[in-house]
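ugh finaly. both done.
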Amino acid sequence: MTTTDPVAAARAVAGDCARAYQDIFADRLVATYLLGSLAYGGYSPAVSDIDLAVVLTDTRDGDASTMNTTTETLRGQGSLQRKLSTFWASLPALRAGQDDGRFPALDRLQLADQGVLLFGDDVAKQVARPATDELLLESARFAVDVLASDEVISEFHNPRRLLVDMVWFTKAVLFPVRFLCTGTKTAGRAATNDEAIAWYLAQPQPIAASLVRMATRVRAGHPLDSAQITSELAAGLIPLYRHYIDEETRRLLRVNAPAELVTAFTRWRQRLE
């Protein structure tokens, strides 16, 4: 059955993918859930992922390979399937606040608070909620790992992919906005894109406001205008990241974060000069 409703179409793909994991893991699969914007709202057909959570009875040698192979096979089945992002772990680990598969703290929190059950037993209330400091440290490590690489810093200084890849453009602009909102307004849970954008643009003289508004329009499906984006990126992207890094560094110092993490942020800031 086909549908013109993008949310319904994405949910249908999520259901098909959940059944595929069920076929692979059989009685070891406890439950599958929708996460992300398909669970809490705000799904954007242009740029949003289809986030799934797979909860297993236990983890065994070979599970990571099986999960990766299955996910890549599913992602190769169509344009919607390419949006698939799967988080997974065992129920005992989730109860203990641990990750024995691929299930970062922010996503475990999202499962506990907002996961939408697709198949199996509803165990979301059994998932341990990560502490606020754990969420801060993990999101900071994610930011350094993903956004402070040589490749990304070079791209920020001399944009190429950002001019043609609407998913990367919106993520690059809105990641720091979400991080800032999460750390300032919604500590203890991850801010959604919609609430982070609204919060950020309501601040007095927000840095790179026009760039954030442009990313919001692109996220809603408006086409990229490379000429306009070039000037907006040049004026706003690096100042936006400097602002985020400065604010995050202050938060890390307040919670006595590991010295190497604070140093990583300091070096990241220097490379964006």
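ok and the 2nd:
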Amino acid sequence: MPTYKFVAKDLMTEKVVCVHPDTPIHTLIKILIKNHINGAPVVNKEGKLVGVVSKTDIVEYEEKTSKKQCQSSKKSFYSDTNGKLKKAFDKISKVKTFGKTMVKNIMTSRIITAQSDDTIDRLAKIMFDKKVHRVIIQDKGSVVGIVSTLDILHAVSTMGYGSSAFVTEEAIINLQERLESAEKSIQSLRDILSKIHGEE
């Protein structure tokens, strides 16, 4: 297995929108809509990552409190938002009020991270093993970026990303196969969940 010269800090999205545990849900909704994002890392006053929160968490909370059938999955921050979830969130954001409910009441404590100097190979392995589409990047305990599967594919496809780039054709194929396998696994999980909810 070749050692990739690309590292997380070379291809990550650096402007990460973070929220705090005490952020009100109605404020969170405005932040997600304004920044066109599905979720955000949650950091405490010291800047330490304590969780993630997403549109899925908001929809699940609303469904739970209104005793509706839950249609979502806790992996939303790390994966992609499906059509049904998007419609549910859009509807909730327009008519639902959450009172004093805060991010800490609905956030997910599951944290999937990598370091800013981790290689593409390492990032791909994390995504493959965890079956996720994006990973939070940290440096000395602070959130500094996010890397998605698209970021990785873009980097390896351009080949010339940085003077130290070293990616063979075999390595690209291997990486793409890993990511495609992860995509299929995630889709299979979605299909199973959809079938289960349909039978309830």
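summary for the 2nd one i guess: Residues 51 and 158 are 33 Å apart (CA to CA).
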